[in-house]
Write a structure and sequence with these properties.
- The complex is a heterodimer of chains A (177) and B (457).
- Chain A is of the alpha+beta class and 177 residues long.
- Chain A has 5 helices and 6 strands.
- In chain A, a hairpin with a 2-residue loop joins β3 and β4.
- In chain A, α3 runs antiparallel to α4.
- In chain B, α9 packs across α11.
- Classes of the chains: A alpha+beta (177), B mainly alpha (457).
- Chains A and B meet through β2, α2, α3 and α4 of A and α1, α5, α7 and α15 of B.
């Protein structure tokens, strides 16, 4: 059987959401949705799981906290302790109050940049990448749902096509790949 | 879909559709530059060139070309630094704090306010850099192994905290801004037809395709970045204030400084946002997106932060008397009645009295009045830093060392020059970047667009 990919294009985000709900209820798996802005509520319908990026950010920030404290302990206490204004740098715990601002800033630095880099890498949106949205209007004012025969092996291509047409898309295209 | 009360004024005026928003934002990018843009960039370019010339002269000859002396060792340099950092704070407040509070009106202004933040922090960072004298050794502020021991930088010093605060603030703001820009660059990429623009926006958009999973991640990243940028912005100006508050100079050594500096920063930043946006909305035809309601909301923020600043000034005065410390009292009496009484008077008038006029609805919804007020507040906030810095320093502990500060043409040239560089960068941004977060605006079109609201009710 030929492997086919269908693209159903809608002119409204709510129309796409209703259409997705309709065909998911009929047992079709939606492979992807392309939209110019986030469609709230589409994720549970098409089975997109919650992202764990926030957990990553927390771990990157904790790494930053540890690195900052370790660094300042080494610079100010272990390697070259200084006595400034009668306040010697004796131990980390005695000096921690004046180390807090840098610890905080460095945690934020690591958390923010770590998360942003992970985000770009996970998305595959890095310098030099080529976009693969099926229609140029999907970044402007059109909303596209992608369904493949590969993911819906229990149904024939004709059945999928018929079901998609029943949701009244503005345009339905079908391609072999 | 989210519903909004019918009596709430729409945020997007006119009969707009998703594609119309794209068209409106793209118009200045694809069109040829207007006469006004050419005139403005020529003027700001000349001023910027004058500033760069002054900076090169300063680097070549030395800090002696500034009006500093043994007693007043800090004057316009650090005043400009604090002023520019303060201006930057409004951008982060708009994009991060208002995002956490789910304020939809931020979407029309966050992009340009963030750009303003980035350019303002660049201007701020310039001042400690050129103040070092030997700018080629600026990397000494970082804890790098060196041939002197290694001799490390002092992590107990607020000046070093500042290095970490400003560099973190700048880079995090830049990343926050760029991540928001990627989907909008993709929209432009898919809309323009061929040529250098297609290549430029293809490169800038990093291959963004708008998949559902990517949007989920995008929203999570925006939320988390907003969550960590909020304490960051408060910490940055608190640390800037500690440059003064941890010193033992009367007039500087006060615990009120961190909150007072942060609200002052937001106050001056909003004034600068208003100055820029009131020009931009007219010059670029964005009246449907940035209108009286947005200006009124910003003016309300100005009343709140301006009043906090006013209370802080009065508290400082009261405590200097109540403390019973002679030197502390003198520092404040001298500010108000000494040789710099005029700068104190400018500060009080511009920052305490004038924002109170915004209690009148007629005034806070008048665009012309707001524009004039925004310039007055910018001036007042510059003088606030000047008053704090110069009047506290010019009366030394020994009366024989008492002195005054007289600025030179280099002081003036560099400050005005940074205004020129800032305006040049902002104008370039307005010409080549999407000045509104167009894809974010589309998410509120149905709930806050005038046409949709009318159809609903």
């Amino acid at each position: 059987m030929a492997r086919k990919v269908f693209h159903a294009m809608y002119d409204d985000d709510d129309k796409l959401k209703e259409a997705a709900q309709l065909i998911v209820d009929k047992g079709i798996r939606v492979k992807e949705v392309f939209s110019p802005f986030p469609i709230h509520g589409i994720d549970p319908i098409i089975g997109v799981k919650r992202t764990r990026l926030a957990i990553c950010a927390f771990m990157y920030a904790l790494t930053g906290t540890s690195l900052a404290l370790l660094g300042m302990w080494y610079f100010m206490i272990s390697d070259w302790p200084m006595n400034i204004g009668g306040k010697p740098n004796q131990s980390l715990i005695n000096n921690i109050t004046s180390f807090l601002p840098v610890t905080f800033e460095f945690s934020v630095l690591c958390g923010a940049h770590g998360m942003s880099i992970t985000y770009l890498l996970r998305n595959g949106t890095v310098p030099g990448m080529i976009a693969d949205n099926p229609h140029p209007r999907s970044t402007n004012d059109r909303f596209i749902m992608e369904v493949t025969t590969d993911e819906n092996s229990s149904m024939s291509a004709d059945d999928i096509s018929q079901l998609l047409s029943s949701t009244n898309p503005e345009e339905l295209s079908e391609k072999e790949y | 879909m989210q519903k909004e009360a019918a009596i709430r004024e729409p945020l997007i005026l006119g009969d707009k559709s998703y594609s119309q928003i794209t068209e409106d934002v793209m118009a200045p990018i694809v069109g040829s530059p207007t006469m006004w843009w050419k005139v403005l960039i020529t003027i700001s370019g000349i001023i910027a060139a004058w500033g760069v010339g002054n900076i090169l002269y300063l680097l070549g000859v030395g800090i002696g070309t500034w009006g500093l002396n043994k007693t007043v060792g800090w004057a316009w340099d650090i005043t400009n630094f604090v002023w520019w950092v303060g201006i930057g704070h409004a951008g982060t407040l708009i994009s991060a704090v208002l995002l956490l509070f789910r304020q939809k009106w931020r979407m029309a202004i966050n992009r340009s306010a963030e750009a303003m933040t980035i350019f303002a922090v660049m201007m701020a960072a310039l001042f400690p850099g050129i103040h070092m004298g030997r700018i080629w050794q600026a990397y000494w502020v970082f804890p790098l192994p060196n041939q002197f021991g290694s001799l490390w930088v002092n992590f107990n010093s607020p000046l070093l905290w500042d290095v970490f605060a400003i560099s973190t603030y700048f880079s995090v703001s830049l990343v926050f801004w760029y991540i928001g820009l990627i989907p909008d660059f993709a929209t432009i990429r898919d809309k323009v037809s061929g040529g250098w623009r297609k290549k430029l926006y293809t490169a800038l958009s990093f291959g963004w395709s708008g998949r559902a999973k990517h949007w989920t991640r995008f929203e999570e990243v925006s939320l988390v970045l907003a969550g960590i940028a909020t304490p960051l912005v408060f910490s940055v100006h608190s640390i800037v204030s500690m440059d003064f508050a941890t010193a033992i100079i009367p007039g500087w050594h006060t615990t009120i400084f961190p909150p007072y500096f942060v609200s002052g920063a937001v106050f001056s930043g909003f004034a600068m946002v208003l100055t820029l946006l009131l020009i931009m909305r007219k010059a670029m035809g964005l009246e449907a997106y940035i209108h009286t309601k947005h200006v009124e909301y910003m003016n309300i923020v100005i009343i709140v932060t301006g009043s906090i600043v006013g209370v802080a000034y009065i508290t400082e005065l009261f405590i200097s008397w109540y403390s019973g410390v002679e030197y502390e009292s003198y520092a404040f009496i001298n500010r108000a009645t000494g040789p710099y009484w005029w700068s104190y008077a400018i500060m009080m008038t511009c920052n305490v009295i004038s924002p109170q006029l915004f209690w009148f609805k007629k005034l806070r919804t008048s665009l012309m009045f707001t524009f004039i007020m925004s310039l007055i507040i910018n001036l007042g906030m510059w003088y606030e830093r000047y008053v704090i810095i110069v009047t506290s320093l010019h009366r030394d502990y020994l009366p024989s060392s008492w002195s005054e500060f007289h600025s030179t043409f280099v002081d003036l040239g560099i400050f005005v020059g940074t205004l020129g560089i800032f305006m040049t960068l902002f104008l370039l941004f307005a010409r080549f970047f999407p000045v509104l977060a167009l894809n974010e605006l589309k998410t509120i079109l149905k709930s806050s667009g005038e046409n949709f609201k009318k159809a609903d009710h």
